[in-house]
Specification:
alpha+beta
Length: 144
């Protein structure tokens, strides 16, 4: 093989290396922004504190520990909780606690074990009829 035929290819990488490193860093940064948990959080409270109208709780879910913030309410260490929906926030700084949380999940509802209401079995008053049901006041089908 002729060494001069390799020369154009050998210049490709050094000229593009800075751009490739920047692109790789951006992709890694996007990956690092992903919250540590997806879906409902269910576990045991291992730490709790209240400040500034919020309750902060550290929930042990399997081998993960997840910080959750919700409206201030009595919560005790060791209690089992379920957090069905939340909004993750990275690098949240609590001024009242003078603490930065790498990730914290803000939740409008945190249910203690046995506290979560059962799903409705009837349609709300005034709901339009649903195919297969006699009226809007009829019960929802099993498993709905």
């Amino acid at each position: 093989m002729n060494p001069s035929s390799l020369q154009p290819r050998s210049r490709w990488l050094p000229r593009r290396l800075p751009a490739l490193l920047i692109l790789g860093g951006l992709l890694w940064g996007l990956h690092a922004q992903e919250p540590p948990v997806h879906g409902p959080i269910k576990g045991r409270i291992v730490e709790t504190m209240s400040s500034g109208g919020y309750s902060y709780l550290l929930v042990q879910q399997g081998d993960q520990r997840i910080w959750v913030a919700t409206e201030e309410r009595p919560l005790r260490q060791g209690a089992q909780v379920e957090v069905p929906a939340y909004w993750p926030m990275k690098d949240f700084k609590s001024k009242t606690l003078d603490r930065t949380f790498e990730w914290i999940m803000f939740a409008s509802k945190v249910y203690l074990e046995g506290e979560r209401p059962a799903p409705p079995t009837t349609l709300p008053q005034g709901h339009p009829s649903v195919p297969g049901m006699a009226s809007a006041d009829a019960h929802l089908p099993q498993g709905h």
